[in-house]
Amino acid sequence: MKEIDARGLACPEPVLRTKVILQESDTQNIQVVVDNGASQQNVQRFLESQGFQTQLEQKGTDFVIIGTSNGTFVESVPVITRSEQECSKIMVMCAADTMGSGDDELGRKLMVNCIRTLKEMGDDLWQLIFVNGGVKLTIDESDVLEDLKQLEQAGLTILVCGTCLDHFNLLEKKQVGVTTNMLDIVTAMQLSDKVITL
Amino acid sequence: MSPGDLDKALCGLVFPTDENVLVGLDRADDAGVYQISEELALIQTVDFFTPIVDDPYWFGQIAAANALSDVYAMGGVPKTAMNLVAFPAKEMELTVLRQIIQGGIDKLKEAGVVLLGGHSIEDREIKYGLSVTGIVHPDKILTKGNIRIGDCLVLTKPLGFGIINTAVKAAMVSTELTEKVTKLMATLNREAAEIMVNFDISGCTDITGFGLLGHLAEMVCGSGVGARIDFGEVPVIEKALDFADMGMIPTVAYENREFRREMITIADTVPRAVQDVLFDPQTSGGLLIAVSGADAGNLMAALHGVGIHESAIIGVVVEEPAERIMVA
């Protein structure tokens, strides 16, 4: 029997602690103590959503929830899922609005050309990620905005670094892709078969 | 504060008034209204809260949209605003505050409202909001106290912001959904308000901390009528019902339900997660509009026509049982 004392904690913390215990161990018996009705109902509902049967006891002003499971339930805590594809998964990371060094004017042209040619990768192109100066390619004034929109419509996941947009004051000007954070980017790196940095 | 606590604290206090007060503290409403001349009345409101999203710029926008909403709900046009700021200036980068204020200013600009000033204090916890002043013709004020039997009830934003924000704290929500909800909260009720006044409407309120049923309860009590809600018609943000089933329900939702327990009857057929959503506290929620049955279809067409796609007719005002809400 796993025991959790979640007294003095505000929602959703008691549910979170319960969730962590369920994820860390295969326990089929769990006891959670909370000190308010909202936490009691939330924890009870969470356990029930995870296939536990629950019993409630009141001890003074505290609530004791006892959950038991027969272990046959399939885990249903939602994790942020991404589309899985059969082919190889190439992630292209665009970390600037220019390609290579030497001459920035040339670099900008090369980058435009490169983005326009990316579609030749076909279904292997899995995610396109824009960080740092690369985010400037996703705004109104971008020469490749239409190309990116077409890629996105065709089903490509385009992620744009929110911190970077914010840094350049472009949050409102982004026109394509989903604003994202470093955790999503690192997760995508890990899941991809190949990361190409431009 | 929970509605019950606020009632307890204020019970029995006597507030001074005069003959120019058109909407005051004697009954629940979104904002106060004070008559200046035969043609003009002032609408005044104030609202502030702790951050509900991580991004300071979006928090500023949401706080401003939320504060402005009370003026729209009274049928008025917001004109000026003052900032209210509490900030831990010694512990936190001042750029954070700058971004919050920028968000507020940008949203005011969108609404055509000017910022006249504000007040700030040092505090351990960030708080931001605004006091907003608007104008309205004294005959055009929309209160919670005049909705008519037979009116249809229209809601202009989906419910579930409180539940989704709780699930965000638990890191269960995708970036896409978080972004969608953030944008919905930052969306002004201006467009819906400008449209509704062209139709035969009898009252309006905006959905905030008391949840849909809490705010509707104020309307039916104020007007001496009852209401029926068709739960299948109520717009709800995707995934909010799933998160409710997993216990991602803000404490305030339980308090809202408890406070109105005696006047609300919910049929057994209404799933529990839907019930929770009906009491879910909203930040910068949509408008709840009472429109005549004859004009309801036209109002819906107009709202959908400008892109307020999630607006829906969710119920109807009835004579009996008075001062009660039935959900089925």
Walkthrough of the structure:
- The complex is a heterodimer of chains A (198) and B (328).
- Helices cover 32% and strands 24% of the residues of chain A.
- Chain A is α/β, with parallel strands linked by helices and 198 residues long.
- Chain A folds into two domains: 2-68, 2-Layer Sandwich (Translation Initiation Factor IF3); 90-197, DsrEFH-like (Hypothetical Protein Ychn, Chain: A), CATH 3.40.1260.
- Chain A has a five-stranded parallel β-sheet with strand order 8-7-6-5-9. Chain A has a four-stranded mixed β-sheet with strand order 1-2-4-3, covered by helices on one side.
- In chain A, helix 1 (13-24) packs parallel to helix 2.
- Chain A is elongated, with a radius of gyration of 24 Å.
- Mean pLDDT of chain A is 86; it is low at 79-85.
- Chain B is α+β, with helices and mostly antiparallel strands and 328 residues long.
- Chain B folds into two domains: 9-140, 2-Layer Sandwich (60s Ribosomal Protein L30, Chain: A); 152-327, Phosphoribosyl-aminoimidazole Synthetase, Chain A, domain 2, CATH 3.90.650.
- In chain B, 37% of the residues lie in helices and 24% in strands.
- Chain B contains eleven helices and 13 strands.
- Chain B has helices at 3-10, 56-73, 94-111, 161-169, 175-186, 190-196, 211-223, 240-245, 251-259, 272-279, 293-305; strands spanning 21-23, 32-35, 41-49, 77-87, 114-122, 127-136, 152-155, 201-206, 226-229, 264-266, 287-291, 312-318, 325-327.
- In chain B, a hairpin with a 5-residue loop joins strand 2 (32-35) and strand 3.
- In chain B, helix 2 (56-73) packs parallel to helix 3 (94-111) and helix 2 crosses helix 5 (175-186).
- Chain B is globular, with a radius of gyration of 19 Å.
- The model of chain B has no long low-confidence stretch (mean pLDDT 95).
- Classes of the chains: A alpha/beta (198), B alpha+beta (328).
